[in-house]
Structure to design on (630 residues):
């Protein structure tokens, strides 16, 4: 492993000052970075360890859930707020790596990796999450959708740091579901991952709001907006869910690789979207509880 | 929809090849405190052979197995062993250890015959740390006392050597016929799977594995071998694949060369079947490699039982299963149209 400087700033300002130096790289849980370092894929001159920044937290105030970027997936799984209000995120956290990975890997790190298969991305996309970014010019809030700009490319400018993830507490009559296909039951990169959220009107039928997001089937985790528009404003039904699922399968751009063929990804995306929406529907009408 | 199916696979596996020399050797010394040291070149790669070989020496010497110290796999100190290959260690090295222990026991019995005032060592037996007169076990003397007498009074330290090589019977170079192995083991495994017909995912719910190993020297280790073999067989059947492109391995790391994790393992029910062979140590044959052989065929047979699709090209990945299901669906539609 090449040598590098290592620092542990205690304030976000200090971290940003360090990250502005050339060749600096932020170190969160290290579950990607250390592997890339050892493999010689990256060779930063300076590692800025974010563990002392006090960014491990899940808070809820004024209907906004705030998750510190350094919160680990184990902590997310342990959070009552996440399990109750963002169950779909908890479901995805449970599917990431294995226990050892979840003890180290952070939500901010997973999002910043911007890999197409990032398991935490589809749930946060369906919860309309925003990310708070700090830089030398101050802070800005970016919709998560705009944060993923390409495979392994995020919207951070040099010297910027993702510090917080925000999502609004879902409205009543909301259901959501995360589903993942991997090659095995743990330590598995997603072949396809899907999240869906449905919020129904007071009649328990009309779709007030719907979000569908998929991973590993396009250059970035992405929403399936045409599929969403199939449901938006209509009365939810099995046949409409089928149509939405087909629309989602049509609008993605999967590739064939070592993990699966493009054909398989497209077909299983349809199935997963259908199942996630069906579960979300049952949850929204109170037939199913979160994490069932 | 999820569909369940069961599949069976049987196998026969040879133990102790004879088509070319296949020797192992061992030395044994019984110490003056009744303990023993065994030297053997056999290498324990995690399968527990060192434990099983200690048990074989202990059984032959009639002492407790934790009184046996094993010195293994050190070419400077230990005698020749062909290797931990071909599921041969318990059978071949076990025989060598048993012979070496028997050789040391000869001295012990000769000295004990004088101590117990019997005409011939043949009238004696060893067990429970003692050497006793057959049919009147009250007339006995401890192995420790005999070893002390032998070493310090008679000047004959109870040491032994032993080696084993199944009689080499080269095969006919013209026909390939002959007697290539000395023993054979048999096994049957049954897999129960659940196939998701929409995603092609296969969930192995249970594996039942019945294995003949001759005599289970250590039943818990035999069970462990079977469970480990099933894990390998499950990976072979469903996940493991070396992808080559123009001769270059495309997945030379464990990110994309997929092995099963503990979470992928089903309930495994093992059954040990003991059909002893006269040429094995206490009848033992072997179980290592056989344990993985029936797993993948049992799983693909179960997949066939569940969804009527034959996968001939392992691993049976969801991509392949889903493609085959779609193909079958198309064929059915064409048939209906006819």
């Amino acid at each position: 492993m090449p040598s590098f400087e290592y620092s542990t700033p205690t304030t976000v300002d200090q971290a940003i000052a360090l990250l502005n130096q050339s060749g600096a790289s932020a170190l969160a849980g290290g579950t990607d970075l250390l592997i890339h370092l050892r493999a010689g894929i990256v060779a930063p001159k300076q590692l800025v360890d974010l563990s002392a920044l006090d960014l491990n937290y899940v808070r809820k105030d004024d209907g906004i859930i705030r998750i510190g970027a350094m919160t680990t997936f184990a902590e997310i799984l342990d959070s009552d707020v996440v399990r109750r209000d963002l169950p779909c995120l908890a479901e995805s956290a449970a599917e990431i790596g294995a226990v050892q990975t979840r003890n180290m890997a952070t939500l901010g790190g997973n999002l910043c990796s911007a890999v197409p298969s990032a398991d935490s991305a589809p749930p946060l996309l369906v919860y309309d999450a925003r990310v708070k970014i700090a830089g030398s010019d101050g802070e800005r809030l970016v919709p998560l959708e705009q944060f993923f700009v390409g495979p392994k490319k995020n919207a951070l400018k040099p010297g910027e740091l993702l510090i917080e993830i925000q999502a609004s507490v879902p409205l009543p009559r909301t259901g959501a579901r995360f589903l993942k296909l991997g090659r095995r039951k743990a330590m598995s990169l997603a072949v396809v991952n899907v999240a869906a959220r449905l919020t129904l009107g007071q009649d328990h039928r009309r779709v007030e709001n719907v979000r569908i997001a998929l991973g590993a089937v396009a250059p970035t985790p992405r929403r399936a907006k045409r599929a969403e528009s199939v449901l938006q404003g209509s009365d939810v039904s099995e046949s409409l869910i089928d149509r939405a699922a087909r629309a989602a399968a049509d609008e993605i751009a999967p590739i064939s690789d070592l993990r699966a063929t493009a054909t398989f990804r497209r077909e299983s995306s349809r199935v997963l979207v259908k199942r996630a929406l069906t579960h979300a529907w049952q949850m929204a009408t109170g037939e199913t509880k979160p994490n069932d | 929809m999820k569909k369940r199916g069961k599949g069976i696979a049987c196998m026969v596996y040879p133990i102790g090849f004879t088509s070319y020399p296949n020797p192992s050797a061992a030395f044994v010394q019984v110490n003056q405190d009744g303990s023993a040291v065994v030297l053997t070149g056999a290498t324990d790669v995690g399968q527990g052979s060192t434990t099983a070989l200690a048990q074989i020496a202990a059984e032959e010497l009639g002492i407790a197995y934790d009184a046996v110290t094993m010195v293994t796999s050190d070419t400077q100190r230990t005698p020749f062993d062909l290797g931990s290959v071909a599921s041969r260690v318990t059978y071949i090295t076990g025989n060598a250890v048993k012979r070496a222990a028997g050789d040391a026991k000869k001295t012990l019995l000769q000295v004990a015959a004088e101590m117990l005032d019997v005409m011939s060592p043949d009238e004696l037996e060893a067990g429970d740390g003692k050497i006793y007169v057959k049919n009147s076990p009250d007339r006995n003397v401890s192995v420790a006392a005999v070893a002390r007498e032998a070493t310090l009074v008679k000047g004959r330290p109870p040491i032994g050597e032993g080696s084993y090589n199944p009689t080499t019977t080269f095969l006919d170079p013209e026909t390939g016929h002959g007697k290539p192995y000395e023993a054979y083991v048999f096994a049957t495994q049954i897999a129960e799977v659940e196939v998701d017909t929409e995603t092609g995912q296969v969930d192995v719910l249970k594996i039942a594995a019945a294995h003949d190993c001759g005599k289970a020297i250590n039943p818990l280790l035999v069970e462990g071998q079977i469970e480990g073999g099933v894990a390998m067989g499950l990976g072979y059947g469903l996940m493991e694949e070396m992808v080559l492109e123009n001769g270059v391995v495309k997945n030379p790391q464990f990110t994309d060369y997929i092995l099963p994790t503990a979470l992928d393992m089903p309930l495994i029910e093992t059954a040990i079947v003991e059909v002893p062979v006269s040429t094995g140590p206490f009848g033992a044959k072997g179980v290592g490699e056989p344990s993985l052989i029936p797993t993948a065929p049992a799983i693909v047979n179960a997949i066939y039982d569940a969804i009527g699709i034959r996968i001939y090209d392992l691993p049976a990945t969801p991509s392949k299963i889903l493609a085959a299901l779609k193909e079958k669906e198309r064929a059915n539609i064409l048939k209906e149209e006819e």
In short: Chain B has two domains: 2-13+181-337, 17-164.
